[in-house]
Amino acid sequence: EVQLVESGGGSVQAGGSLRLSCTASGFTFDDSGMGWYRQAPGNECELVSTISTYSDTSYLNSVKGRFTISQDKAKNVVYLQMNSLKPEDTATYYCAASMTSPCWGQGTQVTVSS
Question: What pLDDT does residue 14 have?
Fold first, then answer.
């Protein structure tokens, strides 16, 4: 059974930082690209960042230069380091693997106050 467990969310002021973690199990981590999605109330689910099995990365334009995705294949963990947070980053953040649906699972809440 595929499991993705997100953690690291919280409440911060604008300009602050958070590091999200996602621990994966139930599939071969090395064989799957990973990503982070987010969804704010009333908004659609949007893709924030991806990392391939070769560690190629991509980012939503609005987070480029502020967010960094990385992975630890030895621990089956993918991270999202979020710096210079803005109120518009407020959302529930979801980890995803190549075989899972966007904005699926429990997610972790990120709230950025101005």
Answer: 98
Q: What are phi and psi of 32, to 5 degrees?
A: -125, 135
Strands of 26-107, DSSP E: 34-39, 46-51, 57-59, 67-72, 77-82, 91-97
User: From the CB of residue 86, how many other CB atoms can be counted at a distance below 10 Å?
Assistant: 15
Order across the sheet with 34-39: list the strands.
10-13, 108-113, 91-97, 34-39, 46-51, 57-59
How far is Cα 5 from Cα 61, in angstroms, rounded to an integer?
Answer: 26
Residues 48-97 have pLDDT tens digits of: 999 999 999 999 999 999 999 999 999 999 999 999 999 999 999 999 99
The pairing of strands 18-25 and 34-39 is: unpaired
Which tokens hold the place of 104?
């699926």
- Look at residues 8, 39, 16 and name the one whose alpha carbon lies nearest to residue 85: 16
Question: Considering only CA atoms, which of 85, 9, 86, 102 is closest in space to residue 50?
Answer: 102
